Amino acid sequence: MNAPLLDRRAILKASLVGGAALVFDAKVALAATPGAKATTLNAHIRINPDNSFVIGAQNPEIGQGIKTMLPMLIAEELDIDWAQVQIEQTIANEKVYNGQFAGGSFATPTHFLPMRRIGAAARQMLVKAAAAKWSVPEDSLTTGSGKVIHAASKRSATYASLAVDAAKVPVPDLAKVPLKTPAQYKIIGKSKIGVDTPAIVAGKPLYGIDVVQPGMVYAAVEACPAYGGTVGSFDADGVKKLPGVIAVVPINTSYDPKIGNDAIAIVATSWWVANEARKALKPVWNDAEARQYSTAGFASAAAAQIDKAPQGDLVKKGDAEKALAGAAKTVTAKYDYPFLAHATLEPQNCTALFQDGKIEFWAPTQNPAPGRALVAQMLGIPAEAITIHMTRIGGGFGRRLSNDYMAIVAQIAKGVPGKPVKMIFTRTDDLRHDVFRPAGWHSFTAGLDAQGRLVGLKDHFVTFGEGGKPGTGAGMSGEFPAALIGDVHYGVSYLKSNVPTGYLRAPTSNAMSFVFQSFLDEVALAADLDLAEFLRRTMGEGRFIEPVKGVTGEFDTRRARAVIDKVCAMAGWKGREGGNGKGRGFAFYYSHRGYFAEVVDVTVNSGGAVHVDKVWVAGDVGNQIINPINALHQVQGAVIDGIGQATAGQKIEIVNGSGNRTNFHDYPLPRITAAPAEIVVEFVPSDNPPTGLGEPALPPVIPAIANAIFAATGKRIRSLPIVPAQLV
Amino acid sequence: MTTTLSVNGQMRQVDSDPAKPLLWVLREDLNLLGTKFGCGMALCGACTVHIDGKATRSCVTPVSAAVGKKITTIEAVAATPAGKKVSEAWTALDVPQCGYCQAGQIMTATALLTDKPKPTDGEIDAAMTGNICRCATYVRIRAAIRQAAGLNEGTAA
């Protein structure tokens, strides 16, 4: 692993002000002499004597391209060439680096300005140093390719030659430092391949699972299959006598720290040995209560609840009951979707060394700061005693926002102090001990007036939660089109569950898009319209709709309409089209600040198998695509991820209190044969700051497929996953 | 017991249980970490290596079954003519997202092009269907194989 950019001899101290902007404190004395060693200009930039530049990539890389993109922003404003840049992953340090997590498609909107300001501030300090050195006005100087240039005297100086003087320049006010105009961009908007791509192709060790530390041992974990069950007894002696086994350590997985130990770790000289030794463990669990929960039980409880009055209100505006009673036509339907796993291809793993009351991690975490807090709590040590090195991550999708693997390996490491230990889940462990996308049930009624206009909408959402609060990832906000019509009632009821839930890529939206955009297609049909036209009419005139706190979010009908119109033009959308097993579907969804409309063509064969043939995507994520090649890749991947959720057969069932899927034969991921022949992507720029792309392209594809299947077969999909039995 | 393996052109000795899967011998005993663990049941292809040139799932191959055979891993595949073309195309098209599956993808693609230098689109999909990419880089996997094969446009399946 690379040394942290902020070493003890860092010549500038970086600190956070107001939790947002980085400032540089130049009071710390210089430690370097010119040309002798690299100069650390701030917490993100180090200038090498050869005038190459190390830029710290501060956010976790899960395949979203952030390790390339954030340094692009710094390099742009520092005004250096991309070929001069080397990139290092920084250490996790929430006191130095703001917003150091991969989630919610937040990194682009959070960091677009701050990262540029960091580069621009460093550039300004270098310019000031040159101005002082040459006794010329700052505004007579220009920069480029890592040099300051004084054209009038034909002088130039490399940044490296100015770095030590620059480090003495007072750090400028980041909020006021001048930034380039888009016309001046040389890096932003130009495609850059992933910084790690050559190393990945060469098979270099980059991931958490690849970490090797001197004297490292390995751990496998047997956790109680039923969530909430605890350790009763196990054959510690039988395991310990096996060759290669070093220790047996009961632990708590951290899903519920209050219940005591719910898992047993085996430490051995080899992970394969540790995992094989699980066969001798003979665990007995205290899990009678946990085993009562099941998918069948949840489904019957939901069915019993959904026709009753909701337990609470999520959105209640106007008088939906009255509007529906007076409607010329009403449409009703029930929808549901299952628990899903994340199934990152790199199974959950983590490496840690516990020594002298301190712990050091090599962690594939999407969210290190809460991991630090969790470990501090679980081990009873101060946060300052925890060091977290961030590794490249073999897929996140929200799974690694939960830091259970850190808590697990921390307890194991404490059980074998002085030995670095690498804990790895098997695929079965990974599918069973996930924080699942929660299942959910919806019962809708919509009303149309005589002109086919949407005049009222009701949804009873049955989800998981307790005490009137949803479980993690199990809530719902004021889903579209609540903000657009006057009479709306979204009610909610909660089921008790033992199942750990969490955030899956485009959380809540991946499910809500399916139920709302599929149901609205039914409503559009009742109005004799296609969904695209029905949405245009429902949205009405172009306007920005202000958010209503706790009810509905902001929404811009102009941005929505622009992507809807664009995708219809791209695909040659002519309204409802299909039959004889071929059909075309449309859907729109706004999530994670991105507006996306998508059209898909599907084929449904006589056996009920669905294939997505082609997809068109129009998206608005603001006025600037930062790294076009990666933006395209994120959209392509999100689309096929959605195709997988819809058609690959993904579904976790709870049996005896535990997820029952064990590997990729019973939890299938989309394979190359599921990929459409073509995914056509166009971005529709709008006058808004750039926003993230890891998530918002995914939600619309799922209802677009369901709507295309209806066009192809006349069969309405109201339950995921889509399986042949629904279509024959 | 001591086992001698031919890995990437070198004879390597390991002290291992003969039942230990080749994947874990490569990763733990030989420090060749490019070959990845994904499923342990030959379902995802992340662990694909070449044994005597044939794409093989190392997670279900006991090390004893690899004795006396030539093992090639991702770390050395670019030294083969097809592997070089595949690796270059993979980089040029920026195929990886998270990248975790890509060693297996490259090994399978290299075996395909060694066997069939000009595969049809149908043959590409058929050869690659055992390799899961959770990020779904499939559009570029197809394109990179076509580029490595010198097929600029798709051929009929």
From TrEMBL, chain A:
<dbReference type="InterPro" id="IPR046867">
    <property type="entry name" value="AldOxase/xan_DH_MoCoBD2"/>
</dbReference>
<dbReference type="InterPro" id="IPR000674">
    <property type="entry name" value="Ald_Oxase/Xan_DH_a/b"/>
</dbReference>
<dbReference type="Pfam" id="PF02738">
    <property type="entry name" value="MoCoBD_1"/>
</dbReference>
<dbReference type="InterPro" id="IPR008274">
    <property type="entry name" value="AldOxase/xan_DH_MoCoBD1"/>
</dbReference>
<dbReference type="InterPro" id="IPR006311">
    <property type="entry name" value="TAT_signal"/>
</dbReference>
<dbReference type="InterPro" id="IPR037165">
    <property type="entry name" value="AldOxase/xan_DH_Mopterin-bd_sf"/>
</dbReference>
<dbReference type="InterPro" id="IPR012368">
    <property type="entry name" value="OxRdtase_Mopterin-bd_su_IorB"/>
</dbReference>
<dbReference type="InterPro" id="IPR052516">
    <property type="entry name" value="N-heterocyclic_Hydroxylase"/>
</dbReference>
<protein>
    <submittedName>
        <fullName>Molybdopterin-dependent oxidoreductase</fullName>
    </submittedName>
</protein>
<dbReference type="Pfam" id="PF20256">
    <property type="entry name" value="MoCoBD_2"/>
</dbReference>
<dbReference type="GO" id="GO:0016491">
    <property type="term" value="F:oxidoreductase activity"/>
</dbReference>
<feature type="signal peptide">
    <location>
        <begin position="1"/>
        <end position="31"/>
    </location>
</feature>
<keyword id="KW-0732">Signal</keyword>
<feature type="domain" description="Aldehyde oxidase/xanthine dehydrogenase a/b hammerhead">
    <location>
        <begin position="202"/>
        <end position="289"/>
    </location>
</feature>
UniProtKB/TrEMBL annotation, chain B:
<dbReference type="GO" id="GO:0051537">
    <property type="term" value="F:2 iron, 2 sulfur cluster binding"/>
</dbReference>
<feature type="domain" description="2Fe-2S ferredoxin-type">
    <location>
        <begin position="1"/>
        <end position="77"/>
    </location>
</feature>
<keyword id="KW-0560">Oxidoreductase</keyword>
<dbReference type="InterPro" id="IPR051452">
    <property type="entry name" value="Diverse_Oxidoreductases"/>
</dbReference>
<dbReference type="InterPro" id="IPR036884">
    <property type="entry name" value="2Fe-2S-bd_dom_sf"/>
</dbReference>
<protein>
    <submittedName>
        <fullName>(2Fe-2S)-binding protein</fullName>
    </submittedName>
</protein>
<keyword id="KW-0408">Iron</keyword>
<dbReference type="InterPro" id="IPR006058">
    <property type="entry name" value="2Fe2S_fd_BS"/>
</dbReference>
<keyword id="KW-0479">Metal-binding</keyword>
<dbReference type="InterPro" id="IPR036010">
    <property type="entry name" value="2Fe-2S_ferredoxin-like_sf"/>
</dbReference>
<dbReference type="Pfam" id="PF01799">
    <property type="entry name" value="Fer2_2"/>
</dbReference>
<dbReference type="GO" id="GO:0046872">
    <property type="term" value="F:metal ion binding"/>
</dbReference>
<dbReference type="GO" id="GO:0016491">
    <property type="term" value="F:oxidoreductase activity"/>
</dbReference>
<dbReference type="InterPro" id="IPR012675">
    <property type="entry name" value="Beta-grasp_dom_sf"/>
</dbReference>
<dbReference type="InterPro" id="IPR001041">
    <property type="entry name" value="2Fe-2S_ferredoxin-type"/>
</dbReference>
<dbReference type="Pfam" id="PF00111">
    <property type="entry name" value="Fer2"/>
</dbReference>
<dbReference type="InterPro" id="IPR002888">
    <property type="entry name" value="2Fe-2S-bd"/>
</dbReference>
<keyword id="KW-0411">Iron-sulfur</keyword>
<keyword id="KW-0001">2Fe-2S</keyword>
